[in-house]
Amino acid sequence: MASSPLLLILSAIVMQVTLNLAQQPGYRFHFCINTSYTAISTFPVNLNMTLSNLYVNATHSNGFYNTSTGQNPDKAYGLFHCRPYTSPELCRSCIKVASELITSLCPQQKEAITWYDECMLRFSNRSIFSDLEEIPKAYLWNVNDIKNSGGFNETMTGLMNSLVAQAVSSRKLFAAGVENDTIFSSIYGLVQCTPDISTRDCRTCLTRSLSDIPKCCNGKRGGRVLKPSCIIRYETFPFYNTTALLPPPPAPTLPPPPPGTSFAPMPPTPAASANYTGKPISFSSVR
Ligand SMILES: *[C@@H]1O[C@H](CO)[C@@H](O)[C@H](O)[C@H]1NC(C)=O
Ligand SMILES: *[C@@H]1O[C@H](CO)[C@@H](O)[C@H](O)[C@H]1NC(C)=O
Ligand SMILES: *[C@@H]1O[C@H](CO)[C@@H](O)[C@H](O)[C@H]1NC(C)=O
Ligand SMILES: *[C@@H]1O[C@H](CO)[C@@H](O)[C@H](O)[C@H]1NC(C)=O
Ligand SMILES: *[C@@H]1O[C@H](CO)[C@@H](O)[C@H](O)[C@H]1NC(C)=O
Ligand SMILES: *[C@@H]1O[C@H](CO)[C@@H](O)[C@H](O)[C@H]1NC(C)=O
Ligand SMILES: *[C@@H]1O[C@H](CO)[C@@H](O)[C@H](O)[C@H]1NC(C)=O
Ligand SMILES: *[C@@H]1O[C@H](CO)[C@@H](O)[C@H](O)[C@H]1NC(C)=O
Ligand SMILES: *[C@@H]1O[C@H](CO)[C@@H](O)[C@H](O)[C@H]1NC(C)=O
């Protein structure tokens, strides 16, 4: 394990992220889905073309793109989705590193998914457009506890519920926002669905993700639920580019220094682990 090339690749990524958080896409999690192909398959050739087309088309994609290459049974479908505050350049570079990572970590696989802070990328030998998909999923949580609960739970839940309502009434199926808190001055939240699913499916995906928060992240200062069709996240520091999103709210005082934060990925959930393999990565971000 210690000598595996995988670990070296990941260590290199972690180092890059640590050195230059602002410009390097931040890897979070991936799953290789248990469907392998034989050596004579043309799937890898199609996959290569699909991933290249995603990359080539990324700059005029408005943050989401899907494509496919080849014919059944070796047809390769792929899609990516970037956060709306991610610049076209960063979105593109996220797709590039995600493609490289996922093809090296999941060789011989017909289906895989990876999440970065800035983007999500997945491929499969089946059509993956426009269907609500909630597995495989990953939970990530901030290892720091809320020491004195002081209404944090209620404030966070209220914020996230209002973001879900905003997201399902927006064209992008995205919302991000901030709420005042008595202990931490602010709680920041973000919810996003892929734009290929219906408003109704988006609401389902986000609502169920919110109901996972007590399971994954109870008493924690930050948490995320990552699914193929939607993601949610909350933190006590501004983890998204607030200036890129909206007329920025007046900031009379500087935000407090971000707390030391690190993320401990949870192993794949039992429901998902039957058919999916995941790679929990110990990850310490500089925040
Ligand atoms: C496609 O294959 C070529 C040649 O092996 C490689 O250089 C390139 O990085 C691949 N592209 C993707 C997106 O995997
Ligand atoms: C974009 O993707 C399509 C297939 O989805 C592909 O035909 C095309 O070559 C790609 N590149 C550009 C610049 O459109
Ligand atoms: C995604 O794929 C579907 C099915 O092929 C297609 O109808 C749709 O136009 C594609 N969307 C984008 C954004 O490429
Ligand atoms: C995808 O590949 C798996 C494994 O080879 C196979 O069992 C499955 O039927 C394929 N799905 C489609 C839609 O071709
Ligand atoms: C947060 O607190 C500030 C200053 O106390 C206030 O101006 C602002 O309206 C509050 N925001 C919300 C969403 O309650
Ligand atoms: C937060 O709320 C959830 C669900 O309402 C509950 O299960 C959990 O115990 C609460 N956590 C804290 C720290 O109060
Ligand atoms: C945040 O967004 C603004 C406006 O788009 C941009 O000028 C700035 O470079 C972004 N900051 C980061 C850290 O990405
Ligand atoms: C795993 O695959 C088996 C056989 O295809 C299926 O019966 C089962 O429902 C799947 N489980 C999950 C969690 O997808
Ligand atoms: C997943 O892969 C393992 C090891 O290759 C195999 O034993 C198992 O049967 C596979 N499970 C499914 C659901 O394909």
TrEMBL record:
Composition skew (Polar residues), residue ranges: 272-287
Domain Gnk2-homologous: residue ranges: 25-128, 134-239
Keyword Cell inner membrane: no
Signal peptide as annotated in the record: 1-22
Keywords from the UniProt entry: Receptor, Repeat, Signal
Disordered: annotated segments: 248-287
Alphabetical list of CDD domains matching this protein: Gnk2-like (cd23509)
Protein name: Cysteine-rich receptor-kinase-like protein
